[in-house]
From TrEMBL:
It comes from Rhizobium paknamense. InterPro entries: Flavin_Rdtase-like_dom, NADH-dep_flavin_reductase, RutF, Split_barrel_FMN-bd. Belongs to the non-flavoprotein flavin reductase family. RutF subfamily. The gene is rutF. The keyword Ribosomal protein does not apply. This is FMN reductase (NADH) RutF. It catalyses: FMNH2 + NAD(+) = FMN + NADH + 2 H(+). One of its GO terms (molecular function) is oxidoreductase activity. Residues 24-169 form the Flavin reductase like domain. The keyword Secreted does not apply. It is an enzyme of class 1 (oxidoreductase).
Length: 178
């Protein structure tokens, strides 16, 4: 009788953290600034770990490190806006990427107020204003499932991307398309 022998015990095996990061650096992604405001104050961070989950109800997921200085504000406010960046926001992304005081981060751009009260970046490629429906802890991060209550579309197709630890311009058609 043919039996399939498992090559590993699934329990506790995993690749090294640095190998994982190095592999993930090969996966390009759009860059966003995720913002919140409310009783716990205004906060924002740069993010690539964002993805569309469902269109009914319209849902995005955002992965947020629990050790980040902004974590508590997002948890308590319960709302956020995902602002998708353009290449003109490369410096802004660096400011929201950590360490910079919150007032300095927000002073570097023009903001509007979304329906939830979270800051909307005036010249974003697109913004999704959301209510955080569910928080699921996974490893070092919380996965935030966010219901989209308002969308604001920008004037550009150019999107800022992050690949191999560097910023790039997204939005040009593939060469195959001619
Ligand atoms: N998902 C996340 O939390 C991300 C965090 N970062 C943070 O920004 C800084 C600079 O990052 P890089 O220049 O890209 O070099 P890096 O070597 O720290 O990260 C390379 C890639 O690994 C992934 N990654 C990095 N940190 C992660 C984390 N804590 N959890 C899950 N995935 C992670 C991301 O896809 C990132 O582009 C680092 O402090 C990094 O932790 C950057 C990208 C995503
Ligand atoms: C390009 C880029 C993408 C990032 N993506 C994420 C992400 O998806 N999730 C996350 O929790 N942190 C991400 N970070 C890190 C946060 O932006 C950073 O931890 C946050 O600004 C908080 O920093 P602070 O603790 O110094 O305030 C990213 C940083 C950069 C530069």
């Amino acid at each position: 009788m043919n039996t399939i022998q498992p090559h590993f015990s699934p329990g506790d095996q995993m690749v090294d953290r640095d190998l994982f990061r190095s592999a993930m650096a090969s996966v390009g992604a759009a860059v966003h600034i995720v913002t919140t405001d409310g009783a716990a104050g205004r906060a924002g961070f740069a993010a690539t770990a964002i993805c569309s989950v469902s269109d009914t109800p319209p849902t995005l997921l955002v992965c947020l490190n629990r050790s980040s200085s902004v974590y508590q504000a997002f948890k308590e406010n319960g709302v956020l806006t995902v602002n998708t960046l353009t290449p003109s926001h490369t410096v802004l992304s660096g400011l929201f990427g950590g360490k910079t005081p919150m007032e300095e981060r927000f002073a570097a751009a023009r903001w509007l107020k979304g329906e939830t009260g979270a800051p909307v970046l005036a010249d974003a490629a697109v913004s999704f204003d959301c209510i955080i429906d569910t928080r699921v802890p996974s490893g070092t991060h919380d996965v935030l499932f966010c219901r989209v209550v308002m969308v604001r579309e920008g004037q550009t197709d150019d999107v800022l991307a992050y690949h191999q630890r560097r910023y790039h311009r997204l939005g040009q058609p593939s060469l195959l398309e001619g």
